[in-house]
Design goal:
By secondary structure, this protein is α+β, with helices and mostly antiparallel strands. The chain contains 5 helices and 3 strands.
Amino acid sequence: MDLDLVFGALADPTRRAIVDRLRGGELSSGELADPLPISRPAVSQHLKVLEEAGLITRTKHAQRRIVSLNADHLSGATEWLLAAHEEWQQRFDNLETVLAEDGPGGDRTTSSAEE
């Protein structure tokens, strides 16, 4: 999975709206296009980007193109975001500890400016 492709695909609000609609289950390309204020060829281009990122799969059933969400690639992005969040939370916790020690009433005895 290429996270750059996943996050690039999700950077566009139209593509996020498509992904949100697909969370409820698979839809045809036409059903996805109907509520969007853009042309069907534009929707097709958005679907192509999502498919290249691995976020959706498109299959043909008779005359209909069915679009399904590929949750595995969303899970990979979620795991990366959670790991980044945990790392930054730890950094903020460490900073808070340092600031509490250096602030008024902290445990440090004197600073070099006071000497």
